[in-house]
Write a structure and sequence with these properties.
Elements: H1 5-10, H2 14-26, H3 31-51, H4 56-77, E1 86-91, H5 100-112, E2 114-118, H6 125-135, E3 139-143, H7 150-162, E4 170-174, H8 180-186, E5 190-192, H9 195-205
Helix pairs in contact: 2-4, 3-4, 3-5, 4-5, 5-9, 6-7
Length: 208
C-alpha cells in the first residue's frame, strides 16, 4: 500500500519517507510529482509551526528530512524542466559563519517551489553581486546572527542601486539579530526572524 508521503514527512517518519521515495523512483515515477507531495508535507509543517503546534526543533527535523529526501530526487531531475515559483540567491555575509537558520529557510523555500542558490557563509560583497548578475534572481536573501554582517548587506544593496539593478529584485534580511531598524539601515524590502514568515514574504514577492 502506498505511503501518505506528506503526512509521513510532517510527522518525521524518516525511514518511511526515504523508503517510499526510493520505491517510487525505482518504479520510474515522475520525480516532480514526488517533490510536490513533499512540498505539501512542508506546507503542513509550516502551518503547524505558525499556529504554535510545532516549534523550532520540529521545523529543523522536517527541514533536514526534506533535504535528505531531495538529495535522492535531484539526480532524477537533471534534464527536466523544473517547476519553480521564483529564483532566490541567499547567503550569510562576510564575518558571519552561522548557517542553521539559513539552511532551515532554504529547505522550507525549496519545499515551496523556489529555485534557491545558496552562497554559503562568510560571503564577501563581490560574491553576492556576481551571483545576482549571473542568476538574475527575483529575491536576494541575507541571513545573519552577528551585527558585523549589517554593513556588507548595506554595501550590496547600495551597489545594486548604483548599477540600476535594485528595482528588479526584492531584498529580505533574516536572523536573530535583525529587526525593522536593520531592514531600514540595510535598505531591504522585508525582515523576519521566522523561516515560515520569511517564506510567506517571499511568496508574496513573486505573487504566489
Amino acid at each position: 500500500m502506498s505511503t501518505n508521503l506528506p503526512e509521513a514527512l510532517a510527522t518525521f517518519k524518516a525511514d518511511l519517507v526515504l523508503d517510499e521515495v526510493h520505491r517510487r523512483l525505482d518504479g520510474d515515477e515522475d520525480p516532480m510529482a514526488i517533490v510536490r507531495e513533499l512540498q505539501d508535507g512542508m506546507k503542513t509543517v509550516g502551518d503547524l509551526f505558525s499556529k504554535g503546534d510545532y516549534f523550532l526543533s520540529e521545523l529543523m527535523m522536517s527541514a533536514d528530512l526534506f533535504t535528505r529526501t531531495m538529495a535522492l530526487i535531484e539526480p532524477k531531475l537533471d534534464g527536466l524542466v523544473k517547476e519553480t515559483i521564483g529564483k532566490m540567491v541567499i547567503g550569510t555575509p562576510k564575518g558571519d559563519i552561522h548557517n542553521i537558520g539559513k539552511d532551515i529557510f532554504i529547505a522550507v523555500a525549496k519545499g515551496a517551489g523556489f529555485e534557491v542558490h545558496d552562497l554559503g557563509v562568510d560571503v564577501p560583497v563581490e560574491k553576492f553581486l556576481e551571483a545576482v548578475d549571473q542568476v538574475k534572481p527575483d529575491i536576494l536573501g541575507f541571513s545573519a546572527l552577528i551585527t558585523t554582517a549589517f554593513e556588507p548587506m548595506k554595501v550590496v544593496v547600495e551597489t545594486l542601486a548604483e548599477k540600476g539593478l535594485r528595482d528588479n529584485i526584492k531584498v529580505i534580511v533574516g536572523g536573530g539579530v535583525t529587526s525593522a531598524t536593520v531592514k531600514e539601515y540595510v535598505g531591504a524590502d522585508a525582515q523576519t526572524i521566522d523561516a515560515v514568515q520569511g517564506l510567506d514574504l517571499c511568496r508574496s514577492f513573486v505573487g504566489k
